[in-house]
Amino acid sequence: MSSEETEYHSNDFEWDELRERIENDPTLNYHFLPFTPQSSSPSSLDTQSWNHFHARHSTGKFFKERRYLFKEFPELASCEKNSKLLEVGCGNGSTALPILRCKENILVFACDCSTEALDRATEVIHASTVVSARSRFRPFCWDFSTCRFPKWLMCDSCYETSLHKQNASLSDIDNCERDSTGITSLKKSECCIGGMDFVTLIFTLSAVPLHRMSAAVAECFSVLKPGGLLFFRDYGLYDMTMLRFEADQKVGFREYKRSDGTRSYFFSLDIARDLFIGAGFIEVELEYCCVKSVNRRKQKTMHRVWVHGKFQKPM
User: Fold this and answer.
1) pLDDT tens, residue by residue, 224-274
2) Which of 154, 138, 315, 158 is nearest to 222 (CA)?
3) Which residue has the higher pLDDT, 203 or 38?
4) Rounded to 5 degrees, what are φ and ψ at 180?
5) Any long-range contacts for 214-217 (C-beta under 8 Å, 24+ apart)?
6) Domain at 206, CATH number
7) Is residue 191 part of a domain?
8) Residue 72 maps to a domain
9) What is the average per-residue pLDDT within 267-291?
10) Is residue 35 in some structural domain?
11) What domain range is 18 assigned to?
12) Closest of 121, 46, 115 to residue 91, by C-alpha
């Protein structure tokens, strides 16, 4: 294991101690003041802002490949042959690529609201040396915060009878084909691909407006097979990034808007728990990941906080 992986996963400090220090700092009081909306909240992800974001970071250097996935979510390493995974908010492919590299028989469906992100992800996957990566990577454009996932993932009939279904094989997946819009569809002989074994929400839900999060999580629940797992990783309350926002960047309760128009929410364990259990999930793991990193050039210590979660659809 690399030193980078070890540092990323270690718990370098106690979250409660950080919370006490932050809440007792008068210069940061504006983070905890009541928020009064000045205008109506957006009903979906700001697709245009995310397109511009990914266009600016088209080289991919902004994102590091998430090699920690198999350490944090070992179920991926031990998954059955021909398992299907849906990555929601795939960005530039930094999650999909290590999964495709380490599991030769897994099929990765990946969606994002940004066509720029999908282009970057496709380029990254196609440029890799991973055997059969192209055929096992299925990107499609989708805003899961406002639209129900397409029926070819899990149709209503199969959703109702999914308790009796076995894992689909890759021969079933071969019935998938791309339509003129680039979205994967099915041949007329098949109704859907039977649902997902895994769903990943890695630094995605925080970009969804708070009032849309419950519906978005429910959509993830709907496309999982019974017993399927959702892996969650996102910004935690009092993360360094949150504290850098100025008072005029607040757009809601623990919600902030960056200068480029993209948004970010910072989760507490209670809020994350309520969202996933409210959608029907069973909590398997939920904790803060607290990492202290040092910018050697600036001699500055940074306290990073992420929420790590693992949730299961009941059998």
Assistant:
1) 999 999 999 999 999 999 999 999 999 999 999 988 888 999 999 999 999
2) 154
3) 203
4) -65, -20
5) 214/275, 214/278, 214/279, 215/145, 215/146, 216/144, 216/145, 217/275, 217/276, 217/278, 217/279, 217/281
6) 3.40.50.150
7) yes
8) yes
9) 97
10) no
11) 3-30+43-312
12) 121
Out of 80-94, 142-156, 164-178, 188-202, which region has the weakest mean confidence (pLDDT)? 164-178
Cβ count near 134 (within 10 Å): 13
- The answer to whether residue 37 sits within a structural domain is no
Tokens coding 191: 């109704």
Distance (Å, whole) CA 50 – CA 230: 24
User: What pLDDT score does 44 carry?
Assistant: 57
Scan for tokens 């819009």, then name that residue: 181
For 95, how many CA atoms within 13 A lie in the half-sphere containing its CB?
Answer: 28
pTM: 0.84
Which two three-digit tokens encode residue 63? 């994102």
CA 315 to chain CA mean position, Å: 23
Task: Return the H-helix or E-strand segment holding 137.
Answer: strand 137-141
Contact 70, 76 (CB under 8 A): yes
Total structural domains within the chain: 1
Query: Quick one: tokens of 279?
Result: 């959608």
* Pick from 203, 53, 62, 64: nearest CA to 114: 53
Strand ranges across the sheet with 263-265: 250-252, 255-257, 263-265
Structure tokens at 149: 């996932």
Beta partners for residue 309, in sequence order: 232, 286
- 291 has which bridge partners? 304
Residue type, 272: A
- Nearest Cα to Cα of residue 121 among 203, 58, 29: 58
pLDDT of 141 over the 60 cut: yes
